[in-house]
Write a structure and sequence with these properties.
single chain, five-stranded mixed β-sheet, two-stranded parallel sheet, alpha/beta, 137 residues
C-alpha cells in the first residue's frame, strides 16, 4: 500500500503563555509600587526660594484647603490631634514632624497645629514648600 502524506492541521490559536507572563510581571510591578506610594490629600504648597531638601520624617500632618486634617494619611479632627500625635512620638528617638499645609488656609491654623505638635513632644517641625523658581540673571 502506498501511504500519502497527511496534512497536519494548522495551529489556529495563539500561544497565551507569553501574554500571561507579561500580565503577571505587570501585576507584580504595580503591586510593589503601590506599597511604597504615599497617598496624600491634594494641597497647593506655598513657594520658597530658600527651601532645603531634608530627610522625610515618619510622621506627617496634612492640612487641606478646606481645613481638613490628616495624620499619616488618616483623617482626624483637631481635637484628636494631641492624643494621637503624643502616642506616635512617645517612644521615638527622633521626634520630627513634617507639616504639609495648603497655601490658602488661615495662618492661625498652622500656628495652632505647630503648638499642638510642640506640646505633644515634637522637637523639629519641617514645613513643606515647593521650590520657587529664582529670577536671577
Amino acid at each position: 500500500m502506498i501511504e500519502f502524506e497527511k496534512k497536519l492541521p494548522q495551529k489556529r490559536w495563539l500561544d497565551l503563555a507569553p501574554m500571561i507572563d507579561v500580565v503577571f510581571l505587570l501585576l507584580i510591578f504595580f503591586m510593589l509600587t503601590s506599597i511604597y506610594a504615599k497617598p496624600m490629600m491634594p494641597v497647593s504648597l506655598p513657594e520658597s526660594e530658600t527651601s532645603v531638601v531634608q530627610n522625610e520624617p515618619d510622621i506627617t500632618i496634612g492640612v487641606s484647603r478646606n481645613g481638613t486634617l490628616s495624620l499619616n494619611t488618616r483623617s482626624i479632627t483637631i481635637d484628636q490631634l494631641p492624643e494621637k500625635l503624643s502616642r506616635l512620638l512617645y517612644d521615638r528617638h527622633e521626634k520630627s514632624i513634617r507639616l504639609i499645609a495648603d497655601k490658602q488656609i488661615h495662618f492661625g491654623l498652622v500656628i495652632t497645629i505647630m503648638d499642638i505638635a510642640r506640646k505633644a513632644g515634637a522637637d523639629n517641625i519641617a514645613v513643606v514648600t515647593e521650590k520657587k523658581p529664582s529670577h536671577e540673571q
